[in-house]
Amino acid sequence: MIINSLYALFCSLGFGILFNIHGKKLFFAAFGGGIGWYFYLLSDKYTHSIVFSLFIASLVISIYSEIIARIFKAPVTIFLVAALLPLVPGAGMYYTMYQSIIGNATKSLSLGIETIFSAGAIAIATMLVSSITKVILAIKKKFTS
């Protein structure tokens, strides 16, 4: 699990370089990818559900990104996008299209639905954390002003 998490860290590092993230921010963006993949594998080990595991990993990455963004006073997307990339269901999209092309409609539909649910789990987790953070910051601002 640790080795796979390091691979995800390097994947996020590469995309961080591609996205022109500099200095310490690059390391922390890449570290988010490693943490997310670790939680994905950990959740998958106990639940055996890809969609739920992606949801948990995306929650962890989103919370991590919100915290690190506040520390660095930087946009959350700097850390979030690079860290979420290892979780993107690219293989699911590929195999959905592959099964469709070879004429296996049943398998294509099954893989397509799982891929859509996987992408939806990532989006919902990210949106949930972002919304809760905005509410918390609004309440904090209301009581401190």
UniProtKB/TrEMBL annotation:
InterPro entries, sorted: ThrE_2, ThrE_Dicarb/AminoAcid_Exp
Domain Threonine/Serine exporter ThrE: 5-132
Biological processes per GO annotation: succinate transport
Pfam family name, one: ThrE_2
Keyword annotations from UniProtKB, A to Z: Cell inner membrane, Cell membrane, Membrane, Transmembrane, Transmembrane helix
Major localisation: membrane
Membrane topology value: Multi-pass membrane protein
Keyword ATP-binding set for record: no
GO cellular component: plasma membrane
Record bears the keyword Amino-acid biosynthesis: no
Protein localization: Cell membrane
Membrane-spanning segments: 6-21, 26-43, 49-69, 76-96, 116-139
UniProt cross-references to PANTHER family, sorted A to Z: SUCCINATE TRANSPORTER SUBUNIT YJJB-RELATED, UPF0442 PROTEIN YJJB-RELATED
Family note: Belongs to the ThrE exporter (TC 2.A.79) family.
Annotated protein name in UniProt: Membrane protein
Organism whose genome encodes this protein: Clostridium novyi A str. 4552
